Amino acid sequence: MINSVRNTVQTILNKNNYGYISPSDFNLLAQNAQMEIFEEYFSSFNKTINAENMRSSGTEYADIAKPIAEVLESFLLSDFIVPRLTNPLYTTNNFYVPSLTTVGNNAYMINKVIVFTNKIVNGTTTATNPFWLADATKNFIALGVKVGDVAFNTSTNKSATIVEVFTTQLILDADIFKNVSFGEKYSVYSGTKYSEAEKVNNSKILLLQNSLLTNPSLTYPAYTNISDYMTLYPTTINGYGAVRCDYFRYPKVPKWTYTTIAGGEPIFDQSQPDYQDFELPTEDEYKLVTKMLEYCGIVIREIEVSQFGTAQQQHEQPTFSMQQ
After folding, report:
1. Measuring CA to CA, how many Å separate 159 from each of 85, 154, 203, 238, 261?
2. In sequence order, what are the residues at sequence separation of 6 or more whose Cβ sits closer than 8 angstroms to the Cβ of residue 135?
3. Which residue of 21, 137, 190, 323 has the fewest C-beta atoms within 10 A of its own C-beta?
4. What does the pLDDT look like over 267-278, one tens digit per residue?
């Protein structure tokens, strides 16, 4: 879609010789346009829910909230979050908020924080095989490990679901133990015993902890959020595998990649390793074009182009994906 958007923008700009937008400028503007539309989805969803509550929204094919929710859910991820270790020898109840450096994606908004309350076993691997967790010192069947439980490589912060259980080996759905010299630390948590943590303001957590009735527990855990990490309560919640975060991630930064031919004209090339298309649905292509034209008018100092883009957005025909 990104090449189609660029071609359309360039066609409109070139029609009256308004100017030319370089690939670097286009990529910068594309990022802003995508982010603006992405954020509109949240306010659009809120307005459709309010419309439903006032009985002014339809059902079935007229259910506007459903396609908006589907777009938002395409950005919804679930990851076990990484402990924040201030001392490499000790685990604490602090965990990093999802980011590129910890889980590979930046969190736009935290949806849920899930605490796994039953650690079945932990130890160190004694052998390495693809998609296996092997520990000759343990009897996983006797310990109560079951299919569907979750295994964690706490040395590399990787997780996998258990698909088959043997006495001293667990078969996993992901190959997370690869150290040929063995000795990787692991934990296994029950996949069915967990609680949802409640977010608490930093100013109130001390009051909760000092009360016998509201003190956070494994049944009713809580968390606070400071800067780039969250703190879980009670403090016994620690270590990789104890906390899973459901969150909306930021869209990936779009990038129109190209090769340059002899004449100097850039030619679209999506085989480049840093190529990234827009992550919005196809029906938003029109909105991307109009927002890009609005930005381009400012860049090339042509007020008519900017006004055209703004006017087209204001007179869009209603669609499921637009703000209601």
Report:
1. 19, 9, 34, 16, 46
2. 123, 124, 125, 126, 168, 169, 186
3. 137
4. 888 999 999 999
